[in-house]
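Dear Dr. H.,

I hope your travels went smoothly. While you were away I took the liberty of generating a structure for the chain from your last submission, since the lab meeting agenda had it listed for discussion. I wanted you to have the full record in hand beforehand rather than looking at slides cold. The sequence, exactly as received, is reproduced here:
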Amino acid sequence: MNVNHEVSLLVEEIRRLGTKNADGKISVTFGVLCNDDKCANLFEVLVGTLRAAKRKKIVTYQEDLLLQGVHDDVDVILL
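The corresponding predicted structure, in token form, is as follows:
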């Protein structure tokens, strides 16, 4: 898999599903990403793609590791 391609697809999905927050940045909750059918079909390992995007400073979120159900309310913010 091409990580850069996966990250660019993730950015598109965050823009599609997210809304602007108080800082003017686009954010979406992890639960929305996990429960979206298009995202489920696009990403084999959504958490891995999110971690790669976080390492590249393209997105940010508060937790070190996101788990579906436990972290559904965590905001993923596009930087």
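Two observations you may find useful: The mean pLDDT is 95. Strands lie at 19-20, 26-29, 59-60, 75-78.

With kind regards,
E. W.
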